[in-house]
Amino acid sequence: MFFSLLRVYNQTMNRLLEKCAIFLLCLPGFLMAGSVAVPVLALLLAICLSAAVQLLSGRMIAWVLLFCASAACGALPILVCALPLFLYDALHERKWWLVVPAISVTAGIGSLSTQQIICVITGLAVTLIWYIRVNRLSESVDRLTMLHDDISEKNMQLAEQNRRLFEAQDNEVHVATLTERNRIAREIHDNVGHMLTRSILQTGALQIINKDEKLKEPLAELKNTLDGAMTSIRASVHDLHDDSIDLKRVLQEMADAVDKRFEATLQYDAGDYIPGEIKLCIAGIVKEGISNSVKHSNGDRIEIIFREHPAFYQLLLTDNGHIDNAVGPINAREPGARGIGLRNMEDRAASVGGRVTFTASEQGFRIFLTIPKQA
Asked: pLDDT (tens digit, 9 = 90+) per residue, 245-301?
């Protein structure tokens, strides 16, 4: 809006400056008149008419004024000196023929001097040439502006495509990294874990059948070492598995897998790093909440919102089922009753220091979970 107004302002000012230059070309013709009063009045009339035409540009009344100004040249020949000004306005209105009535001045051309006629003809020629050149320049500027806008738009589209491509590549790398972590965790669990378990069992068997007092202490130390290694391996496998969970992808897959009678949407706003136990808690509660909605809700919409705040994580899961069929902490038929699913959600939340609340109303059922971040 601002740039459009600025462009109109620039065009108006440019037209005024051009008309001032044409006015200077017309002025000598008025100055060559023998009297003073009539040329001055004619000059003021020409200026007022030209200003009115510019002010009313594009309207029928502006064209009528131009036609009348041109026709008035027959009754007042001195107005012919302002004909270049009228021609300029007519050309801008795209109606050059509005100055044709000025031909009627030929009947009184004798009242003008040769110098005045030369000034008028020169002014008309200069005005026509000026308008043609300025019009071509304006068209060139418009074409360049359109070309610049097209290039800018294409550059923006290209930048957006590049951004999406980079995001897709980053996502593929992220998925590949998580998949590789999961594979490494399985390899460690299946191979190294089983070997350590077998070694621990063999060591225990050797302790039982051993009769040599000198070997009791070395065997006990060996078993302790193997137990420590097994604990470390389990912790490493657990960490690798937790890190390999893409929570956003898991929640989206849950939303996509909802029964067809529901429209499930996901809003996810969280960073890349979320502790593994919190990921499992969130995924478990969402899965249980969706299952309850599918089983008990008579609604048709499920909304999942997960956000990360500076001090806590927040989950909101809602459906639009009515209270009579909603699953909530207070069952409509048995006040105060809790289902197994709701107790499981509360236990999951408590295991990571969080708190979950359930609200059933006429607008639907809501599960609200907050988990504080560990310092």
From this structure: 677 888 888 888 887 888 888 998 888 778 878 888 888 899 888 888 888 888 888
The 3-state secondary structure of the chain, one letter per residue: CHHHHHHHHHHHHHHHHHHHHHHHHHHHHHHCCCCCHHHHHHHHHHHHHHHHHHHCCCCHHHHHHHHHHHHHHHHCHHHHHHHHHHHHHHHHCCCHHHHHHHHHHHHHHHHCCHHHHHHHHHHHHHHHHHHHHHHHHHHHHHHHHHHHHHHHHHHHHHHHHHHHHHHHHHHHHHHHHHHHHHHHHHHHHHHHHHHHHHHHHHHHHHHHHCCCHHHHHHHHHHHHHHHHHHHHHHHHHHHHHHHCCCHHHHHHHHHHCCCCCCEEEEEEECCCCCCHHHHHHHHHHHHHHHHHHHHHCCCCEEEEEEEECCCEEEEEEEECCCCCCCCCCCCCCCCCCCCHHHHHHHHHHHHCCCEEEEEEECCEEEEEEEEECCC
11: tokens are 């065009």
Cβ pair 327, 315 in contact under 8 A: no
* Domain locations along the chain: 2-112, 179-243, 247-372
pTM of the model: 0.41
CA angle 280, 282, 287 (to 5 degrees): 95
Token pair of 215 as six digits: 């070997």
Domain 247-372 part of CATH 3.30.565.10:
yes
Q: Measure the CA–CA gap between 285 and 356, rounded to whole angstroms.
A: 9
First-to-last C-alpha distance (Å) of the chain: 50
Number of other CB atoms surrounding residue 170 within 10 Å: 10
Give the percent of the chain with pLDDT over 70: 77
- For the sheet containing 312-319, what is the strand order? 263-269, 301-308, 312-319, 364-372, 355-361
C-alpha–C-alpha distance, residues 248 and 256, integer Å:
12
Summarize pLDDT for 300-357 with one digit per residue, the tens: 889 999 998 888 999 999 998 865 444 443 333 333 445 677 888 888 899 888 999 9
C-alpha–C-alpha distance, residues 274 and 287, integer Å: 18
